[in-house]
Design goal:
The complex is a heterodimer of chains A (246) and B (296).
Chain A (H helix, E strand, L loop, with lengths): L1 H16 L2 H23 L3 H33 L2 H7 L5 H29 L6 H28 L2 H18 L11 H6 L4 H13 L6 H26 L5
Helix pairs in contact in A: 1-5, 2-3, 2-5, 3-5, 3-6, 3-7, 3-9, 6-7, 6-9, 6-10, 9-10
Chain B lengths: L1 E12 L2 E12 L3 E5 L6 H8 L7 E6 L13 E3 L12 H9 L8 H7 L15 H12 L6 E5 L7 H16 L3 E6 L2 H7 L2 E6 L2 E7 H8 L2 E6 L14 E5 L2 E6 L2 H10 L5 E7 L2 H8 L9
Parallel strand pairs in B: 3-7, 3-8, 5-6, 6-7
Antiparallel strand pairs in B: 1-2, 1-4, 8-9, 10-12, 10-13, 11-12
The chains are: A mainly alpha (246), B alpha/beta (296).
Chain lengths: 246, 296
């Protein structure tokens, strides 16, 4: 079982990296946004740069997972290879977990440039302990976005998945306050942000690496979103295969 | 032992009825051809047997259990559609991937050797020719030392030599006791391999018999001619269907020689005589009565 998970992860990774532009693409936006918006405007201010970097990381986590799972899964379902893989003597779990591992790897690929740029070109500071904690928080806040991506991927056909992911991603980023410093967004967004999955995730990141106070309400909302998307993803997956996975 | 069984199986997609109360038993060691025109329901039936879908009504069994349970698929081999091979992966990698799913797979070298894939190990599947993809697709069905394989049009479009090699591989698997279910819409492919033929059209089993019997059943020729008199005046022997296209008349018959003799013997005036074998699709249409004497 474990080795089959690794087999699936290995082959999905191989497939992904054989088309390097796809990998470069998912690393490009977060890195480019760092260089275009954070380095020139907040780079000299340790506090501002740290906030902005945490926001960018949240942005990258949402971006990669939404597209990786949303579009990746719906594309796979459209391939004639997928029905063949389903005839092999394994349930859906190895495929599912393999995809999860691949997704985590892709996240590292898209996050690494953001962290590097923050370290080299800005005054962003973080204590070693907070840095380690931030890695754990990254993994935690990726869960709702993975589930969101899976819901889109299993529920929608390929073209619809692409459109829905694209429509969701900007309002989520802006509405969650990822593109503005804390307190710097228009009023209605400030009110709304903590209750969006992006806002809740960003607040958790800010609280980990800066003096930003821990926001219990936002974190609970984020857990709520996670449960909701978890239920939706399972529903979409069952509907797709007509059975529970395992 | 029954290796695969369908009992009163119905499968509908929305308002389309793909399979209509199909009963079929495949015993261990049999080599069965599922023959039918495109869209007849063959692939749907296979997807039920291989665990891809579940029936709307009725029961499907594979190796004594529900094919949707992965445990019942341990001795199952299936060909992927060769258009669906992951294009960026190499031949060797795809083989490894499939082998990893089975407890006791065929050694990689042996599998590659048996299907003539040795020289292609490092090639990405996207760069293979149609014939090479087909060989890889069939090889994948045998990767896990299966007891029962479902082969989908395994040799359609292959050149003569490649086709013979693949037939040989299928026959030797069968000779060692393996069960083979072969789907095809070419009689030739089924004739070359199968002992028993199940004809499926419009989601129903139309015939289930030996190859020889089925061959007689679906052998239909088309005799075309132009005649100044309506042929309906003659009660021609052996005419199963008469079609008219412009001033051309098409006579469908199991025995073209006899039909021509009949036309000459009864002094039917005609010109531009043409005799052609019909496609399997046309033969099925005749069999199912979808085309008839009244058709224009």
């Amino acid at each position: 079982m474990t080795s089959l998970v690794l087999t699936h992860a290995k082959f999905q990774t191989l497939e992904l990296f054989r088309i390097p532009i796809a990998v470069v693409g998912s690393a490009f936006w977060p890195a480019a946004s760092m260089l275009a918006f954070v380095v020139p405007f907040a780079g000299d201010d340790p506090v501002g740069a740290t906030y902005a970097t945490a926001s960018m990381i949240t942005f990258a986590i949402m971006n990669t997972n939404l597209f990786q799972y949303g579009i990746g899964v719906s594309e796979d379902r459209a391939q004639p290879w997928d029905p063949f893989v389903r005839t092999l003597a394994a349930g859906a779990a190895p495929r599912f977990l393999g995809r999860l591992l691949t997704g985590l790897l892709m996240m590292v690929v898209s996050l690494a440039p953001v962290v590097l740029i923050a370290a080299l070109f800005t005054e962003a500071v973080v204590s070693p302990l907070a840095f380690v904690a931030a890695i754990g928080v990254c993994a935690a806040i990726s869960v709702p976005f993975i589930l969101m991506g899976l819901t889109i991927g299993y529920a929608l056909p390929q073209k619809a998945a692409l459109v829905v992911a694209q429509i969701l991603f900007l309002p989520l980023a802006f509405g969650g306050g990822l593109l503005t410093p804390p307190g710097g967004a228009p009023g209605f967004i400030e009110d709304l942000a903590p209750f969006l999955p992006t806002g809740g995730a960003a607040r958790l990141m800010w609280a980990t690496v800066t003096d930003f106070p821990f926001d219990l309400g936002a974190t609970l909302a984020l857990i709520g979103w996670t449960v909701l998307f978890g239920a939706l993803a399972v529903w979409a997956h069952r509907r797709d295969e007509g059975r529970r996975f395992g | 032992m029954i290796h695969a069984r369908a009992e009163g199986v119905t499968k509908s997609f929305g308002s389309t009825l793909a399979l209509d109360r199909v009963d079929l038993e495949v015993r261990a060691g049999e080599l069965v051809g599922l023959l039918g025109p495109n869209g007849a329901g063959k692939s749907t039936l296979v997807s039920l047997f291989t665990g891809g879908r579940r029936p709307t009504a009725g029961r499907v069994e594979l190796c004594g259990g529900d094919p949707r349970d992965p445990r019942n698929r341990r001795t199952l081999g299936v060909t992927p559609q060769e258009t669906g091979l992951p294009a960026s992966l190499r031949v060797g990698e795809v083989v490894d991937f499939v082998r990893a799913h089975f407890p006791d797979p065929l050694p990689k070298a042996e599998l590659l050797d048996r299907f003539g894939l040795n020289d292609l190990v490092r090639r990405q599947t996207g760069g293979l020719s149609g014939g090479q993809k087909r060989r890889l697709a069939v090889a994948l069905a045998f990767a896990g030392r299966p007891e029962i394989v479902f082969l989908d049009e395994p040799t359609t479009g292959l050149d003569v030599e490649a086709r013979r090699d693949l037939w040989e591989a299928v026959r030797s698997f069968h000779a060692e006791g393996g069960t083979v279910v072969l789907t095809s819409h070419y009689l030739e492919e089924v004739e070359a391999l199968a002992e028993r033929v199940v004809v499926i059209t419009e989601g129903r089993v139309l015939a289930d018999d030996s190859v020889a019997a089925i061959r007689g059943l679906i052998k239909v020729s088309r005799v075309s001619l132009t005649s100044p008199v309506p042929l309906t005046d003659f009660d021609l022997d052996g005419l199963v269907a008469l079609e008219q296209a412009g001033d051309r008349l098409h006579l469908l018959t199991p025995d073209a020689d006899r039909m021509v003799r009949e036309l000459v013997g009864r002094n039917v005036p005609f010109r531009d005589l043409e005799v052609r074998p019909t496609s399997l699709e046309e033969a099925f249409l005749v069999l199912t009565g979808k085309t008839g004497k009244e058709q224009k």
